[in-house]
Amino acid sequence: MKTPLFQVDAFSDVPFRGNPAAVCLLPEARDADWMQAVAAEMNLAETAFVVPKGERFGLRWFTPTLEVPLCGHATLASAHVLFEEGLLARDRPARFDTASGELRAAPEGERIALDFPAFAPRRAEASPEALAALRVRPQAAAVIEREGAGGTTLLLELASEAEVRGTAPDMAALRATGLHAAMVTARSDDAAYDFVSRFFAPAAGIDEDPVTGFAHCCLGPWWAERLGRRELSAWQASPRGGALGVEVRGDRVRLLGRAVTVLRGELLG
């Protein structure tokens, strides 16, 4: 069976920046073991599997080592493929059935807007082990705990953008803490952005995720409260880097970004 396969750089308008995701367009659902094997073969932060369901689409995401319940950049990549390949008219939203409920993606100018759940971080103390692994001294700390998300995600606000950019975790030590992931964030020095961040998830097989939609479902509420605004502009300061628009709307977050296809092919296995 030949399966259409795309590689898309999400949250970027140029190739080889943002966060790469593989997108497999399946005529019907495949078993999880096969999808996990494909994701391991692609060896990207996430591989998305899209299955038509009438006027909707089933959507699942896999890292090289496990399935995840929510992924922003691979959802953006999937919607981009559906619109760009003419499989869905641009005057209607893509509606995805996922482990995190219904997600929607709709063109908005040159960007695509994702309608995602918001996750308000809960203030908490970071463990000495986590701080030692991340090698940072935060101004504030919080946790995000979601059932089925693989464990606890730690959010640390640092004093400056320079500290965020200079963060160099001990990945083995971070993996040993039992955290699902950790993110660091600070106000941006660039007037074009409100805040910057980085995201580390070695326990999920991703030492540093280039641009993370899920993180901004948490960072949106965090910075909206601090800055007193619901509409924000964000930069994820990984080596590849990527820009996002973030709009907090109660228990939902809109994430806005661009995407570019860098590869089209067929999966033969």
Structure description:
- The chain has 269 residues and is of the alpha+beta class.
- It has two domains: 3-113 and 256-267, Diaminopimelate Epimerase, Chain A, domain 1; 122-250, Diaminopimelate Epimerase, Chain A, domain 1 (Roll), CATH 3.10.310.10.
- The chain contains six helices and 18 strands.
- The protein has an 18-stranded mixed sheet that branches.
- The longest helix has 15 residues, at 213-227.
- The chain is globular.
- The mean pLDDT is 96.
Summarize the structure.
With 269 residues, the chain is α+β, with helices and mostly antiparallel strands. 22% of the residues lie in helices and 43% in strands. It folds into two domains: 123 residues, Diaminopimelate Epimerase, Chain A, domain 1; 129 residues, Diaminopimelate Epimerase, Chain A, domain 1.
Q: What's the SSE blueprint?
A:
Elements: E1 3-10, E2 19-25, H1 32-42, E3 46-53, E4 56-62, E5 67-68, H2 72-84, E6 94-98, E7 101-108, E8 111-117, E9 122-123, H3 128-134, E10 140-146, E11 151-157, H4 161-166, H5 171-176, E12 181-187, E13 195-201, E14 206-209, H6 213-227, E15 231-236, E16 242-249, E17 252-257, E18 259-267
Parallel strand pairs: 2-3, 4-6, 11-12, 13-15
Antiparallel strand pairs: 1-2, 1-18, 3-4, 4-5, 6-7, 7-8, 8-17, 9-10, 10-11, 12-13, 13-14, 15-16, 16-17
